[in-house]
Amino acid sequence: MNFQTKLLAGLIAASSLAGGAALATGSGLKAEPLPQHKVPVSKEGNLVVGLCDGVTSMEVEGVKDGQSMTRDQAQAVSTALMAEWRRKNPDANWDDVPPPAKAVAQAGKPKAPGTPPAAVDATQQKPSAGGAVKNAGQSAASGASEVAAQKDANLQTGHTYGAFSERDEKIWADSTQAFVDEGHRVFHDAAALGGTIAVSCDMCHPDAANTHPETYPKYQVQLGRVAMLRDMINWCIQNPVRGKPLGDDDPKMKAMEAYIYARRKGVPLEFGKH
Amino acid sequence: MMGSRATTAWMVGALLYAGAVQAQSSAPAAPPKLPPGVSAALWKLSVPPGAEPTPEKVALGEKLFLDPRLSADNTVSCSTCHEPAQGFVDGKALSTGIKGQQVTRNSPTVLNALFNASQFWDGRAGTLEDQAKLPILNPREMGMPSPEAVVTKVQAIPEYATAFKAVFGRDVNYDDLAAAIAAFERTQFSGNARFDAFITGDSKALNASEKRGWALFNGKARCNSCHAANIVSPLFSDQKFHNIGIAAHKQDFVQLARKAVGVVRLGDEKQIDELALQTEFSELGRFLVTKKENDIGTFKTPTLRNVGITGPYMHDGSLTTLWDVMDHYNKGGVPNPYLDGGMQRLGLTEPEIDDMVAFLFSLTDARYAKFNGQELARQQKRKGTRPERDTAVALGKKGNLGDLAPNPDLAVKNPAAVGVYGAETSVPGAAK
């Protein structure tokens, strides 16, 4: 390669870089690399687990770096890390318990991984929002004033849109709930998250407690910027969970968002709140 | 098909309490072992409590389903038009009843019919039981004069007299006969297609053409606006009624509709029912059931499961191949004043139509794999003969139908990846 071709290649590289940058700033927002949580290295070569705050970490004795813990070990480490965070932040607001609207549905022992959550109900929302299906009648939103009583539930009034029966609404509710259940599975399963040290989301957020999906987008200190819920999920996957971040449109990411939102049904939307 | 689900207790119970057991069983029975493309949630929603198929009822129902003695002249059985080996259809455009009489409808498949929100092309029956009763009495189909005549005839056949006694604990009656046939039909679910393997994680189950077809299905070809499916309702049908203009192919549809509306406005609903039986009025579809102007010329969205082997297509069997079907939709259907507002030309190119059809053939159950291959080959041979094709209209070179949407760039966004179809593990009520 002579000087001229080097120059040419350099120019092309520079212009493609500029092009890439222009693309990224097309909306006026820059995509910069995220800050990393660098956990300290253990002198004995033990595994060091970081907390989602990007600061706190803990050495796990008896487990070498690169090895995976058992689920029980991972839960113990997660609990200890959370306790440490609370010791450091005694005044921080951390919701252990589900909000009142959920208290009935979520009462009882924490569920074993893989068991689906009880269907969220007890609010007067549309079944398509993942709640219980109403027993009778029709809502204004289901349209079709003449979609008939049970006997003629399959009677269609308009020839296309708005003529939805209770059967349709049941199917919609089940479809949404299926999505939530899948999110529950991923949330509770380190392997499904792609985690390498057996930590899963539920270990710090039992029943998705303290995830506050209704407050996003908001400024996240760990990220040094405003983030969407999925950005925060990915931060947790990369740091405490030690997995690879999921794509924004990964079905697992979508399902987890569905699950986390479902646990906060009925809570007012308050984006940006801390 | 059913496995050995029903317990001995059930059988004893059935014998002791006879029909009363049916009414008593309030707790819905667990669905049988279902293939991946059949949803337990939909099964529970679709099988009324008390109507769960039991091996005894299913065996009796299958016998009745195949028996031409249910017809007036012992020539036509349910299976004449719904032949199990042929995907439960007869392969004809219009079905034939007793004495060679042609009926006005194409026989829909029994496969997955248990999941339909309503039965018949115009949804005039709510349940499989109601459905089973009508063709036996239809003068053009099985031609029996009355339910009593059917009961008398069946009761006189010793094997049935014994069988009904054993299964229902009483003499033959028309309701029990329909219940047995319906029980058999409730075992005819199908959800073991290559598509199901694909959607549950085997990305190699579909080839490149079929995958492009799936993207088109959800995107440019707009199929999923009526043929919607997901893991909870994997039927590829919204179970609604749409006027897509098929009935406007053959007759002066506007004239026909005007006459029918006139009759109904005069308050003579009985006359329209009679007219529907004998004349082209049956082409008015759902209107004959609801008598509502909005329903003129609408027919039920059929399931696309097994569509490759259940042609010819549409309520009148007027489209021979899936290429013809795609041609029909590609030009936006046949215009008429009652055409569904969702119908518009699609602008699919010839290779895109091939991809669409390839995808549709991937929805056939594995047990019909060989037949599916034969059907694909047969339809492919007819690709040159396509009366519905109007490329100029489809691509917007003729007529004034507005701009087509731009072609999606699959590298940027695959319409099939919008939202979620769902995962097998997440079906409510499915065994984890």
From TrEMBL, chain A:
InterPro entries for this protein: Cyt_c-like_dom, Cyt_c-like_dom_sf
Organism whose genome encodes this protein: Stigmatella ashevillensis
Signal peptide: 1-24
Source domain of life: Bacteria
One protein family per Pfam: SoxA-TsdA_cyt-c
Residue ranges of every copy of the Cytochrome c domain listed in the record: 195-268
Region (Disordered): 90-137
Record keywords: Heme, Iron, Metal-binding, Signal
Protein name, UniProt field: Cytochrome C
TrEMBL record, chain B:
Intracellular or extracellular location(s): Cell envelope
Domain of life according to the entry: Bacteria
Keywords: Heme, Iron, Metal-binding, Oxidoreductase, Peroxidase, Signal
Gene3D superfamilies recorded: Cytochrome c-like domain
Record carries keyword Ion transport: no
Pfam families in alphabetical order: CCP_MauG
Annotated ranges, domain Cytochrome c: 56-188, 208-364
Single GO MF annotation: peroxidase activity
Keyword Iron assigned: yes
Secretion signal span: 1-23
The protein's name in its UniProt record: Cytochrome c peroxidase
Biological source species: Stigmatella ashevillensis
